[in-house]
Task: inverse folding
């Protein structure tokens, strides 16, 4: 019984660090895909309502509006949205 509690305590101490490591690796992967302009990762996020109403158009509209307002690349907003989504 004592060994099980020790193993559980070690798992509870290590789990947050493991999750933090996974988040860091995910963020690095997202940034790498952004820098290489990966169309498979960002293409669906940039669909907007210009061609008619689509269910995925809201994220594209928001990214394009923020891009027009700030002068930044819309892919930067998509990368930020993906990082925040994974972090939550």
Result:
């Amino acid at each position: 019984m004592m060994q099980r509690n020790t193993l559980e305590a070690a798992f509870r101490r290590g789990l947050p660090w493991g999750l933090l490591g996974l988040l860091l690796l995910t963020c690095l992967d997202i940034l790498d895909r952004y820098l290489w302009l990966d169309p498979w990762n960002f293409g669906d996020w940039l669909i907007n309502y210009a061609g008619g109403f689509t269910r995925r158009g809201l994220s594209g509209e928001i990214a394009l509006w923020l891009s027009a307002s700030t002068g930044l690349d819309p892919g930067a907003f998509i990368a930020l949205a993906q990082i925040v989504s994974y972090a939550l």
User: Anything to note?
Assistant: The mean pLDDT is 89. Residues 47 and 86 are 21 Å apart (CA to CA).
